[in-house]
C-alpha cells in the first residue's frame, strides 16, 4: 500500500514537471518574440533619428516642398526624381533661432 502511494506521488510529480517544462518552453518562445520585436523597434528608431538639414532654400508661395527638394537632391545624386521621392519619408520646414535672427528662410528637414 505504501509503495502504491509513493508511485501515485511520483506520477503526480512527474506530471507537474512535464507541465512546468511546457510552460517554461512557452515563456521562452514568448521572450524570444519580445526580444525580436524590441530589436526591430530599435532599428526603426535608429532609422528615424537621421535626417538631412538644408539651409537657405528660398521659399515661394504655394511651393511643393517635396518636389523642390526631390529636384535638388536628384540632380546632386544623379538619380531619378521618382527614386528620390521614394527615399524621402517626411519633408518639412523648421524655424530656428539662427534663421530668425539673421532673417533667413526656414531650414528644410528631410527624413
Outline the secondary-structure elements.
Elements: H1 2-49, E1 52-54, H2 65-77, H3 81-87, E2 91-94, H4 97-101, E3 107-110
Antiparallel strand pairs: 1-3, 2-3
Protein name: L1 transposable element RRM domain-containing protein
List keywords for this structure.
3-stranded antiparallel beta sheet, 111 residues, 2 domains, 3 strands, mainly alpha, single chain, 66% helix
Task: Count the beta strands.
Answer: 3
Strand content: 5-15%
The number of domains: 2
Which sequence of SSEs, written as H and E, runs from N to C?
Answer: HEHHEHE
Radius of gyration: 30 Å
User: Approximately how much helix is present in the residues?
Assistant: 55-70%
The spatial strand order of the largest sheet comes to 1-3-2
Overall pLDDT: 82
Describe this structure in words.
This protein is mainly α and 111 residues long. The chain has 2 domains: 1-46; 52-110, no CATH class. It contains 4 helices and 3 strands. It has a 3-stranded antiparallel β-sheet, covered by helices on one side.
Task: Give a short overview.
By secondary structure, the protein is mainly α.
